[in-house]
Write a structure and sequence with these properties.
Shape: elongated
Number of helices: 20
Number of strands: 12
CATH architecture of one domain: Orthogonal Bundle
Largest sheet: 9 strands, parallel
Radius of gyration: 29 Å
Strand content: 5-15%
Structural class: alpha/beta
Oligomer: single chain
Distance between the termini: 58 Å
Length: about 475
């Protein structure tokens, strides 16, 4: 915000993308450091490629250090490494901290004090590295780097900045995209992989290349309106690519978004929420199974399910359910479209189950509910029975793997005597005597349904 205000106050054009914002941040940081150090201040710096000497040489050395460090997954530098990589910076009074782009950290131990350096923000290092590729690498080196590292998570944001700075028109980049030719078409190799498409889309969106964005949107791989990235290692940048594509592309209605087993965790899911909470996107089926999500994501989950009009939601194998009201809201809100909910292995306690079945009682849309392998006990049996006696939409209820007694299941089944919609009930396995009692009630319910001319019968399974 400080950068935006400064630019506006001094009549400079405001940044049109995040890369420009970082460019101005770097330039203003250099100016600010020079002013504080009492050094002659050049005209206001607005581009690091047109710096006067010795500043230009110093930033070039920093850029080379940034690039080589990223290639070696290095973020922290010793004083000796800084002196070796940036001799002009060290020789310039006030330049030790890279004109404010580096910060020094002191470490104390029994053997004495040491100092290390790192960039103020990783994106500064990535920006300088991208600038080094553009200004200092030969075209053949640049092309080789693109082929070898473009899909690397480590280099993802660096290349994102690189594409933005060159607006996607760099000769080496066009040659890389086209599979070795120097035309403007994207190779089918990239358009047959959804994650590669999404990464490219983010680059071209930031670069303002609508034509290339359109070619990705129209890729055959998205024709079924499904995004399947399950069992894929998704970085934070990848999650931003997915979210940006969903909210910015011409496709606004999706059949399925499957991010199961990607282990996105709460922080990653918050990124998705930031985009989708008001993104005017419809997702019929949303799969988030086994992602390490916890109860801190409950409100975000509810927001997305409601705003995206999700019909089938699978969140099994996550510890997402706390003792909050988000679950009730997700099922009963007037805008809720949920017809299927998968919550097996979610540490669903009896308290949370009571909230859940209060919602089931009050909704008329939910048809399938899977709560297998949770911690539901007998103390919530009456709530389940009351809910099922009233609900007229639920068709399948799977609740095996819960520590609930045969007597409690029997009470729940008795409540189904007045229910004509449930066709499948999956319960834990019990001793033969309990099973016989369950079968007897099942037959009684089906006899009554037939007498009323109802064709759909109740089937009880145990697992």
């Amino acid at each position: 915000m400080v950068v935006i205000l400064f630019l506006h106050k001094n009549g400079f054009p405001l940044p049109s993308n995040s890369t420009e914002l970082y460019k101005y941040f770097i330039c203003l940081t250099i100016c600010r450091h020079l002013a504080k150090s009492g050094h002659p201040l050049p005209d206001t710096i607005t581009d690091i490629t047109t710096l006067p000497e010795p500043y230009d040489k110093i930033v070039k050395q920093l850029a080379k250090l940034s690039f080589e460090a990223l290639n070696n997954n290095k973020l922290v530098f010793t004083s000796g490494q800084i002196r070796a990589a940036c001799p002009d910076m060290v020789a310039t009074p006030g330049g030790t901290n890279g004109f404010g782009l580096l910060q020094a950290v002191q470490h104390f131990s029994l053997t004495g004090k040491t100092t290390t350096f790192n960039f103020l923000h990783l994106t500064i290092q990535e920006y300088l590295a991208a600038n080094y590729i553009i200004t200092d690498l030969r075209q053949d080196e640049e092309f080789r780097l693109l082929r070898e590292q473009f899909w690397s998570d480590l280099h993802a944001n660096m290349f994102f900045i690189y594409v933005t700075l060159t607006k996607g028109q760099r000769s080496s980049f066009k040659q890389f995209l086209s599979g070795g030719n120097n035309n403007t078409d994207i190779s089918s190799e990239f358009l047959k992989n959804q994650l590669k498409c999404l990464r490219l889309y983010r680059c071209f969106k930031e670069a303002g290349d609508d034509r290339m964005c359109k070619s990705i949107e129209e890729a055959e791989i998205f024709n079924n309106k499904e995004i399947h990235l399950s069992f894929t290692s998704l970085s934070a940048t990848d999650l931003e690519c997915v979210s940006l594509f969903l909210t910015s592309s011409s496709h606004k209605q999706w059949v399925e978004l499957n991010l199961s087993d990607c282990y996105i965790q709460d922080r990653g899911f918050h990124t998705i929420h930031k985009y989708l909470k008001n993104g005017d996107v419809i997702i019929n089926n949303l799969w988030l199974i086994n992602n390490g999500l916890t109860s801190s994501s409950s409100s975000f989950i509810s927001d997305i399910v409601l705003s995206c009009k999700v019909e089938v939601f699978m969140i099994s194998v996550n510890h997402t359910i706390g003792e909050s009201e988000e679950l009730y809201t997700m099922l009963t809100h007037p805008s809720s479209m949920l017809t299927g909910l998968g919550m097996s292995y979610t540490s669903l306690s009896s308290i949370a189950a009571r909230t859940l079945f209060t919602a089931v009682k009050d909704t008329n849309k939910l048809k399938e509910l899977n709560i297998k392998h949770n911690t539901i006990t007998d103390d919530v049996a009456e709530d389940i029975a009351t809910s099922l006696a009233t609900n007229k939409s639920l068709v399948e209820l799977r609740m095996s793997g819960n520590p609930i007694s045969g007597e409690a299941i029997t009470r729940i089944l008795q409540a189904l005597r007045g229910n004509n919609t449930i066709q499948l009930l999956v319960v834990p396995s019990y001793p033969p005597a309990i099973k016989d009692r369950i079968r007897s009630i099942e037959q009684e319910i089906n006899t009554k349904r037939r007498s009323q001319g109802i064709q759909e019968k109740l089937t009880v399974y145990w697992l």
